[in-house]
């Protein structure tokens, strides 16, 4: 077989095959490593947009916090009232459907609960073991209001105030580390919260976030996205619910159009965006390797070093080399953050 025909065979067998093989094998490696880190990169558009993201809006619920509140202070009117304060407030808290009540409910079991009533803007009342109990805003209970970080509620039993309970965001132990990883990748983290200005400022400072928005309900977040996009930013949103106009959505919802995460941990958000960048870089490297190997095969054929069977074998070996390059070019995600069980005990 003459050299020209061999060159043609290698061009057909090696160069297009290796080049075409580079992108799929790279994406397969990236997706496999992403799944191991709780990140699902099934949306091809997300892989294209992810490397360009330079701003991520972090929903307070679930990203830098666990998505729950926790009791941080228990302040009885009299020192010997603490046990009753925990018991009656915790029991009534089981009838509440808001985050504050659910946090307080973890103080005790349900008890014999009856005659529950919810008072809009005030709190909740009911009977616990035949004792009338009210839990809610100190002003509603005629108690002195308390100012500070978190939400402080008053507790009244048998028409007498017995103390205060304060709950606050349950901050993830490695939230600041996740925020720093985002910033190191040139992604600006922005905290978006439905909480008060004081609480949001405190949460942002704890996590090392410089830009934050307080008292911003879900239906107003589209405006924030539009505002940042008008500045020329490529905006991702990490939230349980999608926000219209966002360039990329990261969510733990099963039907996510974007990047699906097992949870919204800010560290996992940073990992997801880093993996999209790794995928883009690894794909370029793999394709370059494929081109080099393909051209090398053409050169070997032109020099009459390869026969037709060797040319086909060369293409197979070259594809294997591309797979190895893709694997080496894709760094493994960082270790999984410490879980809730590793966290220091709270006031509960």
From TrEMBL:
It is an enzyme of class 3 (hydrolase). GO terms for biological process: copper ion homeostasis. GO terms for molecular function: copper ion binding; hydrolase activity; nucleotide binding; P-type divalent copper transporter activity. Its EC number is 3.6.3.3. One of its GO terms (cellular component) is membrane. It comes from the Bacteria. Keywords: Hydrolase, Translocase. This is Lead, cadmium, zinc and mercury transporting ATPase.
């Amino acid at each position: 077989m003459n050299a020209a025909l061999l060159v043609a065979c290698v061009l057909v067998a090696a160069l297009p095959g290796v080049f075409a093989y580079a992108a799929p094998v790279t994406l397969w490696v990236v997706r496999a490593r992403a799944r191991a880190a709780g990140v699902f990169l099934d949306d091809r558009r997300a892989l294209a947009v992810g490397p360009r993201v330079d701003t991520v809006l972090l929903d307070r619920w679930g990203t830098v916090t666990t998505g729950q509140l926790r009791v941080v202070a228990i302040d009885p009117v009299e020192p010997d009232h603490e046990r009753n304060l925990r018991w009656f407030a915790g029991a009534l808290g089981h009838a509440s459907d808001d985050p504050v009540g659910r946090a307080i409910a973890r103080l005790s079991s349900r008890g014999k609960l009856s005659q529950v009533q919810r008072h809009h803007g005030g709190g909740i009342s009911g009977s616990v073991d035949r004792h009338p109990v009210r839990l809610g805003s100190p002003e509603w209970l005629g108690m002195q209001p308390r100012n500070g970080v978190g939400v402080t509620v008053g507790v009244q039993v048998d028409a007498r105030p017995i103390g205060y309970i304060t709950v606050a965001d349950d901050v993830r132990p490695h939230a600041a580390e996740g925020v720093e990883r985002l910033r190191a990748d040139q992604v600006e983290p922005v905290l978006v919260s439905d909480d008060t200005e004081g609480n949001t400022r405190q949460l942002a400072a704890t996590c090392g976030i410089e830009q934050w928005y307080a008292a911003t309900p879900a239906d107003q977040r589209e405006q924030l996205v539009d505002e940042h996009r008008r500045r020329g930013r490529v905006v991702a949103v990490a939230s349980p619910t999608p926000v219209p106009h966002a360039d990329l959505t990261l969510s733990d919802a099963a039907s996510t159009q974007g990047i699906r995460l097992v949870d919204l941990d800010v560290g996992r958000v940073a990992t997801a965006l880093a993996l999209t960048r790794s995928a883009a870089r690894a794909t370029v490297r793999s394709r370059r390797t494929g081109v080099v190997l393909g051209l090398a095969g053409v050169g070997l054929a032109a020099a009459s070093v390869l026969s037709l069977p060797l040319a086909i074998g060369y293409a197979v070996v070259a594809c294997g080399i591309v797979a190895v390059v893709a694997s080496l070019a894709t760094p493994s995600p960082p270790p999984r953050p410490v879980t809730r069980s590793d966290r220091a005990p709270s006031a509960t």
